[in-house]
Amino acid sequence: MIERYTLPEMGRLWTDRHKYQTWLQVEIAVCEAQAELGYIPADAVKEIKAKANFDADRVNEIELTVKHDMIAFLTNVNEYVGDAGRYIHLGLTSSDVLDTALAVQLVDSLEIIQAQLEEAIQAIRYQAQQHRYTIMSGRTHGIHAEPITFGFKLAGWLAEMLRHRDRLLNLNKTIAVGKISGAVGTYANVDPRIEAIACQKLGLQPDCASTQVISRDRHAEFSQVLALIGASIERFAVEIRNLQRTDVLEVEEHFTKGQKGSSAMPHKRNPIRSERLTGMARLLRGYATTALENVALWHERDISHSAAERVLLPDSCILTHFMLREITDLTKNLLVHTHNMERNLYCYGGVVFSQQVLLGLVTKGLSREDSYAIVQNAAHLAWNKTDGDFRKLISEDETVKKTFSEEELAACFDPNKHLKNLDQIYQRLGI
């Protein structure tokens, strides 16, 4: 991922140096397990741990000749270790180290993502609490529907993020799996107990039935969950973008001091961060598709997945972390224009209260068909007219005047009637 979207704590996990360090961590864990079971001398392990090192540039230099990253790495490590190095990688195949180390990287990445998700949850929860009763127009098909509150809208965001919290917890179990079973995964040259001990040292569980690689359905699930988080963030971002339109302007991204919106038009205050998040979500979905295609490998292994994973797994982690940080900050600092929410709610004389008038007429004994015709006629006469006033028009209808008292009609236009059950939703979410 380009530096522009790479936050340091996540980016550090996906550098070449950290990758090689994790490979070395796996190799040493295996050596320790072998020594515990008496397969190699304990003194050799002490020497390996004391001397083992690598130089990332040197590894890359060797790889130019050998065309194999694991061999290049082992060659460089043995330049530091010397004779005891013959016990490193004993009975293993490259994927034992590559896939197990990758699991460690993914687990560490998940920890960072989980922490950032919690911050996003708290930011959304706080804003939902602040706007529990901030009334605005709900919209369906982009058209005014009935009154809701901005807190209710945010409650939906919060519920979605809480589901992602659960998904990440389950995902940790799926991805925290190592494999030290040798070529084609049969343990022909490595005791299964070595795998169990080494994985325990690394905080992983042994894969129950690997081939020469850990099956890629695990990595596909990992990518899909991150893509799903991205899709939710995109939903929030698209909502912000829609509500920031000039003719709506109910919420707005915080515009920092000195910020410029356009090189040509000084008045512009564009929702650029939300738009950026929308684009990033597309990348995550693309990576998830590639991860699904990586599941079908030839026989016990091939490396068709490898090149793709070198891009998609780091990028998915880095992007998801960045997107969570962005939506957290956006939510914390979101400008909420309550006066515009009120203005928009009552445009065209409060047509959003049409159902309340309809239900009132039906309750009073009119047929639904007749009631609907009366209300729709008044609403459509008011719709999209500068002086359109649904409330005035409906109050002048002869049937309505005969059916409702002034107080009863006024009650139909009381937005608080739409909020009476929202506390139940808030209680479910701890808002």
Sequence stretches where pLDDT stays below 50 over 5 or more residues = none
| Structural Rg | 30 Å
| H and E string | HHHHHHEEHEHEHEHHEHHHHHHH
The helix/strand class is mainly alpha
Overall shape: it is elongated
Number of strands: 6
Strand arrangement, largest sheet? 1-2
As a percent range, the share of strand residues is under 5%
Treating each run of at least 4 consecutive H or I residues as one helix, how many helices?
A: 18
Mean pLDDT: 96
In short:
With 431 residues, this protein is mainly alpha-helical. It contains 18 helices and six strands.
Structure description:
By secondary structure, this protein is mostly helical. Helices cover about 65% and strands about 5% of the residues. The strands form three sheets. A two-stranded antiparallel ribbon has the order 1-2. Strand 3, helix 8 and strand 4 form a beta-alpha-beta unit. The longest helix has about 35 residues. The chain is elongated, with a radius of gyration of 30 Å. The mean pLDDT is about 95.
What is the strand and helix layout of this fold?
Layout: H1 8-11, H2 16-36, H3 42-51, H4 56-66, H5 69-81, H6 94-130, E1 135-140, E2 143-149, H7 150-175, E3 177-178, H8 192-202, E4 205-206, H9 217-244, E5 251-252, H10 272-293, H11 304-332, E6 335-336, H12 338-345, H13 354-363, H14 368-382, H15 390-396, H16 398-403, H17 406-412, H18 422-429
Parallel strand pairs: 3-4
Antiparallel strand pairs: 1-2, 5-6
Helix pairs in contact: 2-3, 2-6, 2-8, 4-5, 6-7, 6-11, 7-9, 7-18, 9-10, 9-11, 10-11, 13-14, 14-15
